[in-house]
């Protein structure tokens, strides 16, 4: 599956240039399965080959990151909360929990957004609860851009120095992705069990 994604990613970037980089990183930040670990190392390789400039690669990738994140933020802020306030009880989500989420992002939003940019899976989704909690938009944007610039530059740098061997990065990211997914699934299961115990107690 990863090999197929990488093939499509490389072909798309080869045909679309900077615009393709923007689109792929935009999609990655809207909860779609476009891993930056498959995009940016190849972009870094193209920088090494002088097909792209480093500045152009970082600018367009980060623009994609922030634009996709802002879209997810808007969905959470203007669509998510009304939906959950009306139908949340059917998903065992109480209004008190929405208040707790809002307070959490008011207190820890900046570091949560920044750190999440480096965590597989989480970075795809974090903008939704940030919008849902009505996190301060300028702060959300600043920390998303900061985290995005660092992460995108790091991955592009790896691709730049690995050159034709940039694909070996996938060998080290798969384990991390799987580990994080297992942790998240475990937390979801625990949450559901606790919610059921609360409902039936």
Automatic annotation (TrEMBL):
It is found in: Cell membrane. The chain crosses the membrane at residues 12-32, 52-76, 140-162, 174-193. Residues 34-159 form the VTT domain. The keyword Transmembrane applies. InterPro entries: DedA_domain, VTT_dom. It comes from the Bacteria. Its main location: membrane. It is a multi-pass membrane protein. Keywords: Cell membrane, Membrane, Transmembrane, Transmembrane helix. GO terms for cellular component: plasma membrane. This is VTT domain-containing protein. It comes from Candidatus Portnoybacteria bacterium CG06_land_8_20_14_3_00_39_12.
């Amino acid at each position: 599956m990863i090999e197929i994604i990488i093939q499509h990613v490389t072909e798309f970037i080869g045909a679309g240039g900077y615009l393709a980089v923007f689109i792929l990183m935009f999609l990655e930040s809207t909860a779609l399965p476009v891993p930056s670990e498959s995009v940016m190392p190849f972009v870094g390789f193209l920088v090494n080959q002088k097909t792209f400039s480093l500045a152009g690669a970082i600018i367009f990738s980060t623009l994609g990151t922030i634009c996709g994140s802002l879209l997810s933020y808007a969905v959470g802020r203007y669509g998510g909360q009304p939906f959950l306030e009306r139908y949340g009880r059917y998903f065992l989500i109480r209004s008190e929990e929405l208040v707790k989420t809002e307070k959490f992002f008011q207190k820890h939003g900046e570091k949560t957004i920044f750190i999440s940019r480096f965590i597989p899976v989480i970075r795809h989704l974090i903008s939704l609860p940030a919008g849902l909690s009505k996190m301060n938009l300028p702060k959300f944007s600043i920390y998303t851009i900061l985290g995005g610039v660092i992460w995108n530059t790091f991955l592009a740098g790896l691709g730049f120095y690995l050159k034709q061997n940039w694909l070996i990065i996938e060998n080290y990211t798969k384990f991390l992705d799987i580990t994080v997914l297992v942790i998240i699934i475990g937390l979801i299961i625990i949450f559901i069990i606790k919610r059921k115990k609360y409902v039936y107690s």
